[in-house]
Amino acid sequence: xxxxxxxxxxxxxxxxxxxxxxxxxxxxxxxxxxxxxxxxxxxxxxxxxxxxxxxxxxxxxxxxxxxxxxxxxxxxxxxxxxxxxxxxxxxxxxxxxxxxxxxxxxxxxxxxxxxxxxxxxxxxxxxxxxxxxxxxxxxxxxxxxxxxxxxxxxxxxxxxxxxxxxxxxxxxxxxxxxxxxxxxxxxxx
Length: 189
Prior knowledge:
The protein is α+β, with helices and mostly antiparallel strands. Helices cover 43% and strands 31% of the residues. The strands form 2 sheets. The protein has a 5-stranded mixed beta sheet with strand order 5-8-9-7-6, covered by helices on one side. The chain has a 4-stranded antiparallel beta sheet with strand order 1-2-3-4, covered by helices on one side.
């Protein structure tokens, strides 16, 4: 129950950030890697259908509390869209932060990234999936960036050496990750 309430609160906070065109955890020198472009239009259609349903039910049912619940449902759907936009994956100077929603965040040290490539893969299953030594962070039943790690990374009760995730611009994400990894390696040398 606590996780659900936390997600709801962060969704409302993300709505406020979205209106103000801000992002969470993205510094001035960081690179945001979006993953919401294909999902947000669908969520807008759902929010519009819910708003229409709220209006129609308002004409038929005079109970005020049903209207409050309908309005909360619209806010909830918009909150999901806002979370996806305001909490992108983030590439910092030494870390790639992979996110999905408000409750999941994985930090991947760039020194551990051996290679990155754009590779689309369709998935059926949960949004976070560990299969052997591969972690897939699935958005819209797809991943399109694959990271191969030089060192295993502990995730929950598993150890992974490959990470797949979704990005709006996979080739740009791969280029940015590769450049940041090379820059970090040059700075360490």
